[in-house]
């Protein structure tokens, strides 16, 4: 899990405008930084997985991906990752992380 300091309070950023990049599985929103360090937020809705446990596991995997790859050090923006409904078509968590990896490289 990523440190709380680097987590974006998503409830404050859901309605805000920022630069948007939409892919099949994810919607990436980036905002100018309000703090001296970048933050990341992840939103996975009920339409993706009905079970809260599955949504939380997926959120943890996405946070760990950013922590392990040290991607926050490479950016100067706050990033909000929103999982889209097609994400439920990927059965394996590794496939989800692979989709995130392919799409995030285009964002930076």
TrEMBL record:
Its EC number is 3.1.26.5. One of its GO terms (biological process) is tRNA processing. Pfam families: Ribonuclease_P. Keywords: Endonuclease, Hydrolase, Nuclease, RNA-binding, tRNA processing. GO terms for molecular function: ribonuclease P activity; tRNA binding. It is an enzyme of class 3 (hydrolase). The keyword Ion transport does not apply. It comes from the Bacteria. InterPro entries: Ribosomal_Su5_D2-typ_SF (IPR020568), Ribsml_uS5_D2-typ_fold_subgr (IPR014721), RNase_P (IPR000100). This is Ribonuclease P protein component. It comes from Candidatus Harrisonbacteria bacterium CG10_big_fil_rev_8_21_14_0_10_38_8.
């Amino acid at each position: 899990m990523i440190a709380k300091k680097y987590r974006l309070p998503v409830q404050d950023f859901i309605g805000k405008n920022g630069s948007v990049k939409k892919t099949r599985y994810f919607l990436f929103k980036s905002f100018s930084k309000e703090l001296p360090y970048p933050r990341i937020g992840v939103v996975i809705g009920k339409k993706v997985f009905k079970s809260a446990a599955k949504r939380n596991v997926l959120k943890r995997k996405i946070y760990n991906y950013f922590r392990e790859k040290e991607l926050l050090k490479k950016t100067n923006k706050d990033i909000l990752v929103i999982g889209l409904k097609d994400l439920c078509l990927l059965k394996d968590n590794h496939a989800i992380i692979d989709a995130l990896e392919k799409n995030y490289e285009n964002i930076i």
